[in-house]
Amino acid sequence: MNRLTKISAIAASLAVALALSANAGTVLDRVMATKDLKVATDANWAPQSFMNENNELDGFDVDVAKDIGKRLGVKVEFVTPGWDIITAGNWAGRWDMHVGSMTPTKKRAEIFDFPAVYYYTPAAVAVHKDSKATKLSDLDGKVVGTTATSTFEAYAKGDLTLDAAGAPPFKYEFKPKEVKSYANSTTAFDDLRLGDGTRLDAVVSSLPSIRDAVKAGYPIKQLGDAVFYEPLAVAIEHGDKEFNDKIAAAVKAMQADGTLSKLSVKWYGVDYTVVK
C-alpha cells in the first residue's frame, strides 16, 4: 500500500467512525427530548396485543412496552404496521422500538439490535375440533396456515433456524403439502374455524394465541405437544447503543422486581419469562 492509498484508507476509516459516533444516541436523544416513545406492535394478536372493548390496545406486549416507557420516564405511543413491514427494517423514524414477540435470530440481527429477551413461549399446532388427526404426523400432506415471515411459517416450511440464546432444540413433526401465509394468526384461525379441511387442516401459532382463540369460542383445539420454544425480544434498529442499553436496563429491572413474571401470569396464567 503506497502512502497516498494509506492516507485515503485512514481518512475513510475516520469518516466511518465519525458517522457512527454522530448517529449514536440520536434515537434516545429524540425520545427523551420529546418524552414520546413510538412502539410498533400488532393490533390483532391476543393475548399479546389486541384492541379491547374500549378500542384501546391491550395485552402482554402492550403492558411490557408501557412499563419500559414508564421506567424511561416517557409516554408510549403505539403504531400498528404489518408484521412484514416491521421485520423488513428501514423504519425511518416511523417508530422507535418494537415490542411484539420477535425472535432474535442471526438473520434478523443483520437489521436489528435486541436489547433484551423478555419471555419464552411455546409454539404449537391447532386443528379444528372435528379433525380426525390424533398426532402431529397426521398433518403430513395437509394444508397448514401460519403468519407470514414468522418463525411459525419457517417451521411449517421446514426452514426454521433458532439461533437465539436459550432456545432448546426441536424437530419437524410433519411435512405439509401446502403452507398458506396470513397477515396474523387470527386470520388463519378464522379460516380454520370454517371446518376441518375447508380451507385449512391446521394452524401453527403461539400456544398462548391458540388458547386465547379457544377461550374466545373458536372451534379449534391443540394437537400434540409444543413443536418448539422461542426466546422473544424487544427490537430496535442498529445504530444507538445508548438507547439499546437504556431498554436493556429497564427490562432487567422488570425481571428483578417481578414485574415481568406478574404480567405473564396476568395474561397467560403461566410465567413464561423463565425457561422451564
TrEMBL record:
It is found in: Periplasm. Its main location: periplasm. It comes from the Bacteria. Keywords: Signal. GO terms for cellular component: periplasmic space. InterPro entries: SBP_3_CS, Solute-binding_3/MltF_N. Residues 1-24 form the signal peptide. SUPFAM superfamilies: Periplasmic binding protein-like II (SSF53850). Residues 36-271 form the Solute-binding protein family 3/N-terminal domain. Pfam families: SBP_bac_3 (PF00497). Belongs to the bacterial solute-binding protein 3 family. This is Polar amino acid transport system substrate-binding protein. It comes from Rhizobium leucaenae.
